Amino acid sequence: MTFLIVAFAGASAVVFATLMLAQRSLYSSAVCFLAVVLQAGVLLYASGARLLAVLLLLIYAGAVAALIVVAIQVAGGAAEVRGSRWSRLGLPWPLAAVGLLLPVCDGAILLLRAGAVRMPAAPPAGDLALGPALFGPYAAAAEAVALLMLFAALAVVRSPEEKS
Amino acid sequence: MSALIWAVSGLLFFLGLAAVVLRRQLLAVFLGMELMVVAAALALGHEATRAAAGAEGFVAVLLVLAVAAAEAVVGLTLVLRVHWSGRPAEADSLRELRG
Q1: Residue A86 touches chain B, beta carbons under 8 Å
Q2: B32, B36, B30: which is closest to B94 by C-alpha?
Q3: A134 contacts on B by Cβ (under 8 Å)
Q4: Any chain B CB within 8 A of the CB of A58?
Q5: Tens digits of residue pLDDT in A100-143
Q6: Chain A hits for B28, Cβ within 8 Å
Q7: Residue A85 shares a structural domain with residue A156
Q8: B60 touches chain A (CB under 8 A)
Q9: For residues A53 and A42, is the Cβ–Cβ distance under 8 A?
Q10: Same structural domain for residues A82 and A134?
């Protein structure tokens, strides 16, 4: 059963990645990208990397996808192909709905099948070892990445000279 | 199952690379880059669960995701700056550096 779900999630991820490449509308490409990320989360969960699956969904389906949509909206007509707006999605609406609902369905099947809706007795060993590793031998790397994210956030600030 | 996930990762990476090479809009190129990062994270995360001991693989995936998030902020800011400068946000419009 798990193999079937993995095969299904993998096939849908590849299909939506192909659609992302083929779509002319940036909004449609962003929706396809979101579908691929959701399926990748399901694949990671099925592999046993539960914490990584949650982090992938938080970072990509949450933060990065939202940033991409905001960037498309801010860039407006210059970045978007003329005539294709969110209200007239180049990707057919049923296909977009399928792309977003499929990962939810196969993720729910995985959760129900594994009994993970109930609180597990103990998290997997890899998840348990992640915290001590981040605050132990990899503390310097984690701090460096945190600093990198801070400087990246500063990149978006526009100086008064640039505004004028 | 491992071969299947590796195949999916490889295909996703290839499709992301194709988006980077074939698309002209900067945001579409950016989406292709992000797709490549997701493919790499998927392969790394899967291998991390197969490793005998330690959390090195998990830490590597976590750091890759964090760096990719920072890269997303910088990339999208660059796209927006190109747009604010009045040039079209397409790869063809960026041919030379200034300064």
Answers
A1: no
A2: B30
A3: 59, 62
A4: no
A5: 777 778 777 777 776 655 555 556 666 777 778 888 888 888 88
A6: 26, 29
A7: no
A8: no
A9: yes
A10: no
Question: Tell me, what amino acid is at A76?
Answer: G
Q: Which residue in chain B is spatially nearest to A30 when comparing CA positions? A: B31
**Residue A66 is part of which domain span?**
2-121
Helix axes B56-84, A125-134, angle to 10 degrees: 70
Same domain assignment for residues A148 and A88: no
Query: A157 and A101, same structural domain?
Result: no
Question: Rg of chain B over CA atoms, in angstroms?
Answer: 17
Residue A86 has pLDDT above 50, yes or no: no
- The reply to whether residue B62 touches residue A126, judged by beta carbons under 8 angstroms, is no
Lowest mean pLDDT among A71-80, B18-27, B33-42: A71-80
Same domain, A67 and A91: yes
Residue bearing tokens 């990671």: A44
Query: Is residue A120 helix, strand or coil?
Result: coil
How many domains does chain A divide into? 2
Residues A159 and A94 in one domain: no
Q: In order of start, what are the domains of chain B with their CATH numbers? A: 2-93 (1.10.287.3510)
